């Protein structure tokens, strides 16, 4: 498989992983809210935290598997996740509200991508140094 196909596959898998984890975390938040363990006024900050937490594994996967570099791959994954969140809002609610909460969720996704990109750069192999050539005089 070529490098471009590997990068695209890693990017798509990272985005899918992020979206799946975000949906599972939203289900958990809904369960906690219904049971009364999470008050309604704390629900939005918890959603922002779940956006960051969901972005980490997908962004790290894309950062380590693609050939784009850690930060660009993770930020592209965050961008695609934010676009999918916006599209879901358009489909479900017939429009995305231009409120501060929408912007905060998108910024949380970007922050998760940035964090994943910064953490994901450490998996590269180090080159072996050539032994120094000793000259006899």
Keywords:
single chain; 137 residues; mainly alpha; 4 helices; 73% helix
Condensed summary:
73% of the residues lie in helices and 0% in strands. With 137 residues, the chain is mainly α. Helix 2 crosses helix 3 (70-93) and helix 2 (43-65) packs parallel to helix 4 (100-119).
Task: Show the helix and strand layout.
Elements: H1 3-35, H2 43-65, H3 70-93, H4 100-119
Helix pairs in contact: 1-2, 1-3, 2-3, 2-4, 3-4
Could you walk me through the main structural features you see in this protein, from its secondary elements to its overall organization?
The chain is mostly helical and 137 residues long. The chain has helices at residues 3-35, 43-65, 70-93, 100-119. It is elongated and about 80 Å long. 26% of the residues are buried. The mean pLDDT is 84.
Helix content estimate: over 70%
- The average pLDDT score comes to 84
β-sheet strand percentage: under 5%
What's the shape? elongated
Which ranges are low-confidence, i.e. pLDDT below 50, for 5 or more consecutive residues? none
The chain-level structural class is mainly alpha
User: What characterizes the major β-sheet?
Assistant: none
